[in-house]
Design goal:
The protein is mainly beta. The chain is built from no helices and eleven strands. A hairpin with a 6-residue loop joins strand 4 (about 30-40) and strand 5.
C-alpha cells in the first residue's frame, strides 16, 4: 500500500507562485511515472504535467513555460513549481504515481488533492 500526501496549496494573487509537494510513503519498491492533475469546479480532471521514471517531462499547453514538474527520488517526493499563476489555474490539484510495492505489481495511486485558488 502507498500513501500520497499533497501540500503547498493555498490562496495566491494572479501573477504569484506556489510550490506543491507530494510525499509518497509505504512499502515502495520502485516508482515509475508520476504526474499532477487538476480539477476545476464543473470541469473534468485534466493532466497538468507528468514526469517519467527517467526524468523526461510533458506539460499541458495551458501551463507550458509557467509550471515545472520535478521529483526527488531519494525522498520519494514529487513537486510542481507554479509561476505566473492565473485565475484559470484555480482547481484542486492531485498527484498520482505508478508504484510497485514489495507485495504487488505496479499500480496507480492518487493523493487526496490540495486546493489552489488564484484570486485578487
Amino acid at each position: 500500500q502507498v500513501q500520497l500526501v499533497e501540500s503547498g496549496g493555498g490562496l495566491v494573487q494572479p501573477g504569484g507562485s506556489l510550490r506543491l509537494a507530494c510525499a509518497a510513503s509505504g512499502s515502495i519498491f520502485s516508482i515509475n511515472a508520476m504526474a499532477w492533475y487538476r480539477q476545476a469546479p464543473g470541469k473534468q480532471r485534466e493532466l497538468v504535467a507528468q514526469i517519467a521514471g527517467g526524468g523526461s517531462t510533458n506539460y499541458a499547453d495551458a501551463v507550458k513555460g509557467r509550471f515545472t514538474i520535478s521529483r526527488d527520488n531519494a525522498k520519494d517526493t514529487l513537486y510542481l513549481q507554479m509561476n505566473s499563476l492565473k485565475p484559470d489555474d484555480t482547481a484542486v490539484y492531485y498527484c498520482t504515481g505508478n508504484f510497485r510495492t514489495y507485495n504487488s505489481a505496479p499500480y496507480d495511486y492518487w493523493g487526496q488533492g490540495t486546493q489552489v485558488t488564484v484570486s485578487s
